[in-house]
Fold:
Amino acid sequence: MRIDTRTVNGVTVLDIHGKVTIGEGSVEIRNKVRELLGEGNKNILLNLGDVSYVDSSGIGELVSSFTTVTNQGGQLKLVNLTRRLRELLAITKLLTVFDCYEDEDTAVQSFS
Amino acid sequence: MESEQITGQDRVTNGEVEIFFGSRFGYLDLIQDFSEAIGRWVGFDEDSRYWIGLSIRESVTNAIQHGNKLDESKKVSVRFQIMPDRLVICVQDQGEGFDDSEIPDPLDPENLLKPSGRGIFYVRSFMDDVRYRALPGGGLEMRMEKRLDHQKEGDENEN
Structure:
């Protein structure tokens, strides 16, 4: 897994590439999110369009990142979910928890 | 040796394949790839193969993490029973076993934001039948079954 970081209109966008699974560095997202919060960046958008695979551990990682950001008064949102990731979130009722967007522009605007 | 696709009467429609490996997450991709390949062999569509692969991955993760507690000297076995109308997969570990009635419901509002506890729920969602049994010599077996005639509607709608 690889994470690229960029800033769009004050929102930190994390482009996640590859597998978000157990043993494949799924904790990297959590660590990156903590690092951003420490630097005062509280508006975080996870771009999951290039995620090739997610297991339950990866789903847990998204949840953990979400609660960490929310507890610090920030917002963490998701964009570009693959169909299968959306299904994994839906059947565990997490689509109602996460703020999910189809395209990045709309997602970034939603923070303001 | 010439490589030819095995078809017709050479194709196994009743058979068994078993894989053993030490308790390392590094094997998960291999097991998942193998699971999806067997799913293709049996005749499952792409979506079903994907969810079978994920279910086996979750089950093996459980066996490594909660069963064998990451002890590499303890083995996990995955047995695939290929049948004309279904695929049965048995994942065994060498751990202490567990009581699945103690697994919290991940859909319970108070568990919704917990970082773990969804693996078995996904397996139950994607497979047709899931059972556990304690093994006579110690360890736990998780048996999963996926029937060919039970492919969910909408599986053809790939995007």
